[in-house]
């Protein structure tokens, strides 16, 4: 067993060398331990409920790069709450404070290198915090593994449990996954059903060839070429509108 002083009350805390999270028996503060030392860890409470998250997903799915009608026909399979651990580093870089966030646990979920931690909402994780049954992912990456890669001088560093929703959905006989921040509603997705660009390309190519032909025709019969150009403009516009609405 090893011993260190609790960073909150100063009492001695014993821990096994394999421990990452321990509780002070005097003040009940939860403390994380890694190669860089011991310190508090914090929790960001869920600020967005599940109903709002589903609405956020539907709006995201209706974006111009998403497959046609993804917002309408995506079948939500599950919505799971989770507290995911990240390391928060505040660094002095050339006289200005910069914040860096890195995952504290191994994951294949998208977006967890891009989370934005609103510092004012953090609370110390202690006996008063109720996770309400939400899964708290255990960290398995040492903070020390990031320290040599960060610029500037350290000002503050902490372990923060970040609230996320993991949303699984099905579309076009395939399963997909997104992560949605439970503090900002930002959506992260490594891959998603994309809108096909082939129809847009076909309209563009046909329009280009038509205008090119009419350009040559203008040297022979300008009035006929002008009339055909007007017709082509209407056809290209109509075709583009149809593709945008239907495909």
Decide which structural class fits the backbone: alpha+beta
Beta-strand fraction estimate:
25-35%
- Spans of 5+ residues with little confidence (pLDDT < 50)? none
Order of helical and strand elements:
EEEEEHHEEEEHEEEHH
Number of helices in the DSSP assignment: 5
Q: Level of helix content?
A: 25-40%
Tell me, what's the shape?
elongated
How many domains would you count in the coordinates? 2
Tell me the major beta sheet: 10 strands, mixed
The beta-strand count equals 12
Instruction: Give the end-to-end Cα distance, rounded to a whole number of Å.
Output: 65 Å
Rounded average pLDDT? 82
Cα gyration radius (Å): 27 Å
Question: What would you say this structure looks like, in words?
Answer:
The protein is 27% helix and 34% strand. It has 5 helices and 12 strands. α4 packs antiparallel against α5. The model has no long low-confidence stretch (mean pLDDT 82). By secondary structure, the protein is an alpha+beta fold. A hairpin with a 6-residue loop joins β3 and β4. Strands 3, 4, 5, 6, 7, 8, 9, 10, 11 and 12 form a 10-stranded mixed β-sheet that branches. Strands 1-2 form a two-stranded antiparallel sheet. The chain has 2 domains: 147 residues, no CATH class; 49 residues.
